[in-house]
Amino acid sequence: MDEYGEGFLGRPLGEVAETLNRLLVDAYLPVHDRLDVEQGLAALLVIRQVREDLLEGEPILWVRRVMTVGEVPHRGTLMTTITFDHAATGYSVAQARCLAHAAALAYKDEHEIQSTAGRWGFDRVKHFRVPHAAPFPLEDTQAYVAAGDQMIIVAFRGTQPEELRDWLSDANALLTPYTAAGGNIHAGFYRALDVVQPTLLQTLEDWHTGQSLWFTGHSLGGALAMLAAARTHFEDPTLLADGVYTYGQPRTCCPQLAAAYDEAFAGRTFRFVNNNDIVAQLPPAPLFGHVDEERYFDADGRLHEKMPPVAGLLDRLGGATADPLAPGTDGIRDHFINAYLARFDAAQQDAASASGRKPKTGRGPASAVTGLLPK
């Protein structure tokens, strides 16, 4: 047994539940006397795993888990092979799954990004890491560009939950005018993109020779991917994204600018939300707005193109109350990038086993791009 609690083997169920609840309080209260944020989040996931073992009647055999904030354990045998279709142009679950893994790769170090992207068929990779000066709450902005003969991916790294909490509060959540179009965007997101955009744009102009272009990111990285796609095309109209795929993205701009983005990138942007993901609900509306094209994973892991408001509310309530030994933690668990990967692995398996289902193309023609983008 490790530092998160005492052994459970052979103890009555009531005592086990009491211990789990005590661990939950230690891990989840805003003030952590014994656990820092990373340890607390890891403890919540361990608690969930033990609860599942109890409900399934399995013997409690404690296995020490070493996890980072971006990781979440999942059960069952899921698909792990990642094969990019470099000739893809439109929307598909397979493409969304691959780009989710590309977003997850942005959390790794430069060496792993290089080697993994190489295995995916990209022969050129450039990593960006630009530090910020205090008192800006984010340490740096990180992203990478991976290019092949047919496809280019731009992926932005997200941030740790404690940093994101600061991002979505206080002065960092103020709206600032967006110079490329009418409307306002999150001031912190604007600054985070601004430090890396010139080098990113130059790299794309040097490497782009007609390949399809894709932007992706998880959490904060999703917000930066969305903004980078718009700003890149505004600064160089030849660089129009074939797809912008984000996962657990926070609200990024005012509703007016979100509507302009929807018009400009119709059929090209897809914002994925996993049930009660707390970050997707921040900063609060109506000051901030989401881009419209949402793809929603319900509490059972089913992927929906559109979820009616009432049905969505009931589903989120069901997800929030599904774990009686960890009340209120669903929004945190649902935000982890590995939670999204597990959802996509399951969805891809479902799609592969279904017969006669045709992938949606979804992509609008370049001539239809108006409003947010230059004439």
Let me know the largest β-sheet.
8 strands, mixed
How much strand?
A: 5-15%
* Radius of gyration of CA atoms, rounded to a whole number: 21 Å
Q: Enumerate the strands of the largest sheet in spatial order, edge to edge or round the barrel.
A: 1-2-3-6-7-8-9-10
Question: CATH-wise, what's the superfamily of the largest domain?
Answer: Alpha/Beta hydrolase fold, catalytic domain
Give the structure's gist in a few sentences.
It is built from twelve helices and ten strands. The protein has 375 residues and is an alpha/beta fold.
Keywords:
Rossmann fold; single chain; two-stranded antiparallel sheet; 10 strands; alpha/beta; 2 domains; disordered C terminus
Description:
- The chain is an alpha/beta fold and 375 residues long.
- It has two domains: 1-67, no CATH class; 93-368, Alpha/Beta hydrolase fold, catalytic domain (Rossmann fold, 3-Layer(aba) Sandwich), CATH 3.40.50.1820.
- Helices cover 38% and strands 14% of the residues.
- It has twelve helices and ten strands.
- The chain has helices at 13-28, 37-55, 93-105, 110-119, 161-167, 187-194, 197-207, 220-235, 255-264, 309-320, 330-333, 337-353; strands at 124-131, 140-147, 151-156, 175-177, 184-186, 212-218, 243-247, 269-274, 294-297, 303-304.
- The strands form two sheets. Strands 1-2-3-6-7-8-9-10 form an eight-stranded mixed beta sheet, sandwiched between helices.
- Strand 4 (175-177) and strand 5 form a beta hairpin.
- Helix 1 runs antiparallel to helix 2 (37-55) and helix 6 (187-194) crosses helix 8.
- The N and C termini lie far apart (63 Å).
